[in-house]
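Hello Y.,

Per our agreement to keep a running log of every chain we model this quarter, I'm adding this entry. I've kept the format consistent with earlier entries: sequence first, then predicted structure.
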Amino acid sequence: MKKLKFLSWAFLAMTLSLTACSDSDEPAPDPTLEVSQSSTMIPAEGGKVTVNVNSNTDWSVSTDANWLKVVPAGGNGTAVVELTAEANESYDSRIANVTVKHEADGKFLSKNFTVQQAGKAKPTYHFDLMVSVGGTTGMGSSGVTSTLIRNLTPDEVEDANNTISFKGIGVDIQAEINSEAIIKNGYYYEAAPLSNSWYGKYIVNDNQKVQTVNKFEMGSVVFKAKQYTHAWIADNTLVFLGADKAVSNRGSNKATSNTIMWSRVKDNGNALSMEAEGVLDLTTPTKEFKEGGVTAFSTTGLATYRASDNTIIYAFVDNDLTAKTLVKGVFVAFIDPATMEVKKVIKDDRAETLSGTAYGELQQDKMFFDENGDLYIAGENYIATTNSTSSTSQYGRILRIKKDATEFDKDYLGYDQYQDGKILSMDYLGGGKIAMTMQDPVKTGLSASRDYYAGWSQNDISTYYVIYDIASGKATDLSEIPFSSGSFSDRVAVVNGKCYIASSPDTSKEQLPAIYIYDIASGKLTKGANIEAGFYINRLNVVDNLK
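Predicted structure for the entry above:
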C-alpha cells in the first residue's frame, strides 16, 4: 500500500515537471508586419490618406520626403497611419518613399510603399509683358527705339525676388506690328500694321521673330493704323469700325470723319478672309439729337458685342471741330451684326465725352459686361476753366446700359461723387468691383491745378490705380503702387481670381518698374517681379497658350 502511494506521487511530480519544462521551452511567435497597400495618391491641392499597418509587434514609420507628414511615427500591433501633404506648388509630381519597420533582438522586418502627389495644373495661359526703350508707346509717342515682348509664366510674374530681364531674350515687334495689336486666343490681330494696307494674324514667341499666320489686303475700306475699334462675334469673326484712311486732320492734331467705315473679317484658323465691308449710317438716326444729324466723328469710338440679343453696341461722339465749343454727350448705336444696319441710336449728356475716342480699346479696356449682362461704359467730363488749354483735362463718369436694354440706365451714374481722376481704363474684377487706371496731375504732384495742360502728357508721372465699387460708388486708392507714366498703356490683367497691375514709376527716384498682384477675394495687395531698369512697361496681357 505504501509502495503504491509512493509511485502515484512520483508519477504526479514527473508530470508536473514535464509540463513545466514544456511551457517554458515553447518559442515566442515570429513577428509579423504587413501594410494594406504598396502605393497611394494625394491630389495636387493637398490632403490626407491612410494606410493600415497589420502587425503583432512594435514598429516605426519614416519617410524620405520633408513635404509628407506621418502620424503616428510608430506603434505596436495593428494601427492606421495618416499621411498628410500640403499643396504641391510645383507643376511636377513628386514621390515620397515610406518605410514601416521592426527591428529587435536581431530580427528585422521592413515594408515599403510610395505616396505620389500630383503637380499643380499647368496654366493654360501666360503673360505677355511689352516694354519699350526710349519712352512709352501710344498716340503721338516719339523716341521709342524698340518695343519688346517677353512670354512669362504666372510664377515668374508673381516672384518678388525676380527681376525680369530682356537681355538676350524676348522679341522686338517694332518692325512687324504695332503695340496696339488686338490679342485673342493666343494670337495677335491688326488692321493696317505699321500703316500697311492689310489685315494680319500673328504669333509672338520669345526669341523668335513675329510669325505671320496669315494676311490679306484691305478692300474698299482702308483704316488708319491704330485708329479703329473692334468687336468679336464669337471667336471667329472680328468687326472693325473707324474713320476712313483718307480722312484729313483738322484742328489740333485731331482726325475727324464724316463717315464711319466697317469691315467684318472671318478667322478660319490659318486663313483670314473678308466677309463684308461698308459704311454705317449714323447721320440719319442722330437727327433727333441734332439738326442735320451727326456728320463729324472721331477716329474710332468704342465697340463691343452683346451676345444675349445678338447686337453690336457702338459708342461714339460728335466731333464737329468747326464748332466754337465742344459738342458734349455720348452716343450709342445698336447694330445688327449680320447686316450692319443701325437699329437705334441713343444719347446721354451726363458724360460729356467718351474715355478715349482715338484708340478704340486697342490697348485699354473701357467697357465691360458684369455678371448680370449689364454694360458699363467709361466716359469723361471736361475740366473747363479760363486756364484750360486742352480738352485732355477731364474727370471720369461711368454710364450703364442694362441687359438687352436699348436705353441708358438713368438711375445709375458711376464715379459721380468725384470731380477728379480721368478714367484711362476699366477692368472688371467680378462681384461689382472694377480696377481702374486713373490720371490726375494734381493727385500725383505734377501740377497745382487740373485746368492746365501740364501733367496730362502720356510720359508724365500722372497715372495711378483705384478699386471702384459699383454699388457704393467708393474708389479706394492702391496707394502702395507708385505713380506711373504711360496714359495710353495697358497695364492691368485679370485672371484666376487675381488682378495684376504694372507700374512704370519715376526713374529719377531710382524705382524699378514692377508688377503688383491684387487678390480679388481678400483685397490684399502684394508685390511681384521687378523689371530691369531702362524699360517702360506698355502692356501686361493674359495670353492663351497655343495648343
